[in-house]
């Protein structure tokens, strides 16, 4: 909250810095401006109002645009206003001349200058008041403006309760009933004991303060002086209230304990007070209290400056002074490098752990999305169900599938892709088998066709040279050669087969030529022909 207030104050100061000057600089600027005005006016006063334009009229221009047009309009309005003002001044001057006599132009110029300066002063004052009003409005919106901001109950709500007053101190503050009168020596001893107890309590509080400072994350250099002053004032008020409350309780307890002997005790105290020099007692007590206040102020200064408190133990004149204990050498400067390195290593380890967790979370999320996408594609696919893995979920028992699912956790992409690979291989093998079966069926059908063609050739009178017994001849070899030989050789084989067929057609002309009975001269004549 204090840092936010400081940032706001710095922002306001930075904004107002160009407009805020020291008092001496402001005075010097005013003197320079007054000297410049005097040099401009010369020996005489201003004969008319200060203006930058001396024209009597402004002609409208069509080429003017934007700010130039607005300036020309404003200038024309200013000229008209000045003309009206001059006319009014002339009429007023004429009335004044009729009433009080003639008036010089120098007095009129001085009056106008004074009015202009008064207007400037009022304008500056209004601007200052507006700035103050805006600052107050912004401060009213801060939490510190609330009435309960400095409430002691809210401030000390989470703090430790104040320690109770020792019973010995309360007993020492009361007057001893059995004593006939107070003894100054006893009072001094009691006061010394109180001082010693106060020092012991002070040392204990200093130790607690050091412990709290070591545990606290706030640094004294970040705390403003205003906050320290408010804290000290609040502490002083609370301490005074606590002392008054405890003293009131002590007085009440003593009054309750006395009972019917209260009047007797007051009488004895009054008789003893008459015999003792009260002024010296009060002076000594006042001196002790002054020393206590000085020690308390010194303590507060030391706490604000954070020194290393060194309080010497009280010594008596009768007892010999104890030997000085050696002050241990501070080892903080030896441990500081190691602590800084350990802190650096801890930060690096934390950053590595955070990076590892981030990468693990990212990989897990990506793996889940990939598995979800593969599962969706597997459900919509027609290839994977038709070719399942033999050892897949369908072929395993429910107990084995449940054990694998609970032990492995999230499956990797390889486990999801494995059915696709197996289904692709199975589909490829099945396709190859189907193609091989179709090829075999075609070969069988081709052989049957060739056989049929051979039988048809025998019926038609084909000589059948070089034919096999099953009726397949060169044409079967030609058909088989088409699948085994290259394209050029296949075309050559086809041409050779066509030539052989043409020769067979030439040789077999009619049905009677098939009847080669060897009838002697008939056959010989035909051959000769």
Spatial gap, N to C terminus: 137 Å
Q: Provide mean pLDDT, rounded.
A: 72
Given the C-alpha coordinates, what overall shape results? flat
Main sheet attributes: strand count, strand direction, barrel closure:
none
Number of domains: 4
How many separate helices? 17
By secondary-structure content and strand pairing, the structural class works out as mainly alpha
Proportion of residues in extended strands: under 5%
Order of helices and strands: HHHHHHHHHHHHHHHHH
Biased composition (Pro residues): 319-329
Region (Disordered): 306-332
Short description:
With 529 residues, this protein is mostly helical. The chain is 71% helix and 0% strand.
Molecular structure report:
This protein is mostly helical and 529 residues long. It is flat and about 165 Å long. The chain has 17 helices and no strands. The protein has 4 domains: 102 residues, no CATH class; 164 residues, no CATH class; 30 residues; 120 residues, no CATH class.
Essential attributes:
single chain, about 525 residues, mainly alpha, 4 domains, 17 helices, about 0% strand, disordered C terminus
How are the SSEs placed, and which strands pair?
Layout: H1 2-16, H2 23-41, H3 67-100, H4 105-140, H5 152-155, H6 167-173, H7 184-215, H8 225-258, H9 262-275, H10 278-305, H11 332-380, H12 383-386, H13 398-408, H14 413-460, H15 474-484, H16 487-507, H17 521-528
């Amino acid at each position: 909250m204090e840092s936010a207030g400081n940032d706001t104050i710095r922002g306001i100061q930075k904004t107002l810095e160009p407009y805020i000057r020291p008092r001496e600089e402001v005075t010097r600027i005013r003197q320079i401006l007054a000297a410049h005005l005097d040099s401009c006016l010369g020996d005489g006063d201003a004969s008319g109002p200060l203006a930058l334009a001396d024209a009597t009229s402004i002609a409208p221009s069509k080429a003017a645009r934007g700010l130039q047009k607005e300036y020309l309009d404003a200038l024309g309005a200013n000229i008209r206003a000045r003309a009206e003002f001059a006319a009014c001044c002339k009429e007023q001057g004429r009335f004044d001349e009729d009433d009080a006599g003639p008036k010089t132009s120098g007095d009129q110029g001085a009056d106008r200058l004074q009015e202009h300066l008064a207007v400037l002063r009022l304008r500056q004052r209004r601007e200052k008041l507006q700035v103050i009003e805006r600052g107050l409005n912004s401060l009213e919106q801060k939490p510190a403006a609330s009435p309960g901001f400095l409430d002691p109950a809210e401030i000390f709500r989470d703090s430790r309760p104040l320690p109770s007053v020792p019973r010995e101190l309360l007993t020492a503050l009361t007057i001893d009933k059995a004593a006939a009168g107070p003894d100054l020596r006893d009072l001094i001893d009691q006061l010394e004991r109180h001082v010693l107890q106060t020092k012991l309590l002070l040392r204990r509080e200093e130790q607690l303060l050091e412990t709290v400072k070591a545990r606290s994350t706030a640094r004294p250099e970040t705390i403003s002086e205003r906050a320290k002053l408010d804290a000290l004032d609040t502490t002083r008020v609370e301490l005074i209230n606590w002392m008054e409350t405890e003293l009131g309780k002590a007085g009440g307890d003593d009054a309750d304990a006395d009972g019917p002997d209260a009047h007797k005790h007051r009488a004895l105290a009054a008789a003893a007070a008459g015999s003792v020099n009260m002024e010296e007692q009060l002076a000594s007590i006042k001196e002790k209290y002054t020393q206590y206040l000085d020690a308390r102020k010194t303590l507060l200064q030391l706490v604000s400056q954070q020194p290393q408190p060194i309080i010497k133990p009280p010594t008596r004149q009768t007892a010999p002074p104890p030997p000085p204990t050696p002050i241990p050498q501070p080892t903080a400067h030896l441990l500081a490098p190691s602590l800084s390195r350990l802190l650096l290593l801890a930060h690096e380890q934390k950053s590595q752990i955070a990076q590892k967790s981030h990468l693990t979370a990212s990989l897990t999320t990506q793996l889940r999305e990939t598995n979800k996408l593969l599962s969706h594609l597997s459900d919509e696919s027609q290839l994977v169900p038709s070719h399942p893995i033999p050892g897949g979920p369908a072929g395993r028992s429910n107990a084995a599938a449940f054990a694998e699912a609970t032990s492995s956790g999230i499956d990797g992409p390889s486990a999801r892709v494995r059915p696709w690979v197996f289904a692709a291989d199975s589909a490829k093998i099945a396709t190859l088998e189907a193609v091989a079966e179709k090829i075999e069926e075609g070969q069988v059908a081709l052989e049957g066709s060739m056989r049929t063609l051979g039988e048809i050739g025998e019926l038609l009178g084909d000589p059948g040279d070089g034919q096999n017994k099953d009726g397949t001849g060169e044409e079967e070899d030609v058909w088989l050669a088409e699948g085994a030989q290259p394209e050029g050789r296949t075309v050559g084989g086809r041409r050779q087969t066509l030539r052989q067929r043409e020769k067979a057609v030439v040789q077999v002309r009619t049905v009677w030529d098939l009847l080669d009975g060897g009838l002697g001269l008939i056959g010989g004549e035909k051959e000769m022909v």
